[in-house]
Amino acid sequence: MRKLLSLFAALSLPTLVLAQSAGYTFLRTPVGARPAAMAASFVSVSKDAHSIYYNPAGLADLSQRAATFGYINNILDVQDFFGAYVMPHKQGSYGFALQYTDYGDFTRTNEFGEELGSFGANNLVAYFSYSRTPAERLLLGGNVKYIRSTLADFSSDAVALDLGAIYHSSLFDNLSFGAGIFNLGRVRKAFDGRKEDLPLTFQFGVSKRLAHLPLLYSLTLVGDPDENLQFRAGGEFSLSPNAFLRLGYNTLGRDQKVGTDSDRFAGLSIGLGLDYRQYKFDYGMSSFGEIGNLNRLSVSIIF
């Protein structure tokens, strides 16, 4: 059983780049091509269905129904899918999302190396979100999450909360501030009886769309009890009203360097976006240095 648990931990991407004491580290894997191309610096950005992951308060000022669907070609051929639907209402915005990770099939063997068939491993996260605008310029939101991991015949599940706020200030010509606390909760059922902590994360950031340059920039600080403070910086350039270039850098890249030529790209991200009527098509690539690159595709729809 412990061998199976070790395999499950090794298959989770965050544990490939950092040693962490908390469990469920897959909860820290960014979703969405647009936010990921901006180095996941998205806690202070609103009006995007991906905010259900990055800061649920960002859903509060959506004026139309929105849906998004995304796919990640993950490292080690892990398949990751994300989908969200947001419905504005006069009392606030309601949202629902599913995140699913499939690690594929593995050969089951006994202690003598004899094959005994195969087994699979996967993760599922379900988000139920509510956000509203209680005062002018202030957005508040929260998620209730159900989290489940399975590995062969074993399973573990947990429940958690995300809480966030965004304030569209009048400083510096409408600078936006965002803050959130993520993965507040507990494990209900553990794989082996030992309940690990969830990967609690705190974020604070600012963003601004420049008045005289077609650029939205975003800066974010990310902290958690187990790791050093991260800094994320992202930018979105409007090449035209319907085309966008996105760039980002995450200081996490410094911890991914192993002394090879690929190190110079660790922590960098880039992406493109195209809008056609109510459809948005986005691509993002994030570099983990020698470990490899993550390629993300997303399609969003405004109803």
Give an overview of the whole structure.
- This protein is 8% helix and 56% strand.
- The longest helix has 10 residues, at 2-11.
- It has a 14-stranded antiparallel β-barrel.
- It is mainly beta and 303 residues long.
- The model is unreliable at 1-20 (pLDDT under 50).
As laid out across the biggest beta sheet, the strand order is 1-2-3-4-5-6-7-8-9-10-11-12-13-14
What is the number of beta strands? 14
Shape call: globular
Counted by DSSP, the helix tally is 4
| Class computed from helices, strands and strand pairing | mainly beta
Low-confidence stretches: 1-20
- Percentage of residues in DSSP E strands: over 45%
Radius of gyration, in angstroms, nearest whole number: 19 Å
* Biggest sheet record: 14 strands, antiparallel, barrel
Following the backbone from N to C, one meets helices and strands in this order, namely: HHHHEEEEEEEEEEEEEE
Helix content: under 10%
- Chain-averaged pLDDT: 89
Q: How far is the N terminus from the C terminus?
A: 48 Å
Q: How are the SSEs placed, and which strands pair?
A:
Layout: H1 2-11, H2 13-17, H3 33-37, H4 51-54, E1 66-73, E2 79-89, E3 92-109, E4 115-135, E5 138-151, E6 154-168, E7 176-189, E8 201-209, E9 215-224, E10 227-240, E11 243-250, E12 268-276, E13 279-287, E14 293-302
Antiparallel strand pairs: 1-2, 1-14, 2-3, 3-4, 4-5, 5-6, 6-7, 7-8, 8-9, 9-10, 10-11, 11-12, 12-13, 13-14
